[in-house]
Design brief:
Elements: E1 3-9, E2 12-17, E3 22-25, H1 40-62, E4 66-78, E5 86-98, H2 102-116, H3 118-125, E6 129-138
Parallel strand pairs: 5-6
Antiparallel strand pairs: 1-2, 2-3, 4-5
Helix pairs in contact: 1-2
């Protein structure tokens, strides 16, 4: 896996993934930025959410669960000293589907955390306390039925 990060000006950078996708990163005005992009640590947090959500949806689909939506709500705390690393992260999954089995959702979240999510494992191995919870919502019935 490769990526490049190019400095634009002040504290603004553009990152490009090896697959050709870009993201603008910028700091707040008090740090010399213009608030024109996501903060790098926000990007790390979003990456964890995306990695884990990918796992949860994939596991549920393989379990033949009729999942129609999955949202990961992440909340993190950072150290007050430099480097301001994450100390805790909580990921709350809101999974919507038709007749979802709670045991299947619980299993998907657990397997993502314990086995599959590279970002979660990397951060946990680095000392971050990563916790998860979930909520299951019933999907609205089809309007044409």
């Amino acid at each position: 896996m490769k990526a490049t990060v190019k400095w634009i000006d002040n504290v603004m950078f553009v990152g490009e993934s090896g697959s050709g996708h870009g993201v603008v990163m910028d700091g707040s005005p008090e740090h010399g930025g213009r608030n024109m992009g996501i903060r790098p640590m926000e990007l790390v947090l979003i990456g964890l959410g995306g990695c884990s959500s990918f796992d949860v949806v994939t596991i549920l689909k393989k379990a033949r669960q009729n999942v129609v939506d999955c949202r990961a709500e992440l909340e993190a705390q950072r150290s007050s000293s430099i480097p301001a690393v994450f100390t805790t992260i909580h990921v709350r999954f809101v999974v919507t589907g038709k007749a979802l089995k709670e045991s299947a959702v619980e299993r998907a979240v657990r397997l993502s955390t314990e086995k599959y999510c590279s970002a979660t494992r990397m951060l946990m191995d680095g000392g971050v306390d990563v916790t998860h919870s979930y909520e299951i919502l019933d999907a609205e019935p089809d309007s044409d039925n």
